[in-house]
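Posting for a labmate who doesn't have an account.
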Amino acid sequence: MSAAEVLLERIRQDGAVNGAIVNVGQFLNHMVDPVLIHLLGDDIAARFADQAVDKILTAETSGIMLAQAVALKLQVPFVYAKKKRPITMPEYFAAASYSFTKQESTTLYVSRDVLCQGEKVLFIDDFFAKGSTLKAIEEILSQAGAVLVGAAVIINKSQRRDIESILTLDDLR
């Protein structure tokens, strides 16, 4: 079975879809099934295997597991933008993001030590909905002088087709 077929079956078995709300808390973004994450990571990595990727970038927290799986397959480091700036991060890039799921704004921070000018970066996340997180990541990459080479998610809930995804909201209907 393909990654999309496995994921679709898992959503039907252990998840729920209510309009644009997709509950995958029992296997993806609260309790995590590592076998499923690695299957999804392999699928996403295969889509970018022929591209030069220096780093994977995601936002804290739900994208971390997929980012790690993709980074492992592509053999590149991954970075997650933090939602709170620690005192150990004196120099940073930052941009605001709004979470529609959590109904709150947050600032994402990436240390200047881990993102360099000219690096080719792949953005990874669990969902793509309105694009607020990606906009913040694009702003951070712009500040760093890095280049976005692609964006990939587990489920794309938007109509944008330039976002690589395992499933779209239409697939879940």
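Reply:
Got it, the structure tokens are right above this. Strands lie at 16-18, 21-23, 55-59, 78-81, 92-99, 104-111, 120-128, 147-156, 164-168.
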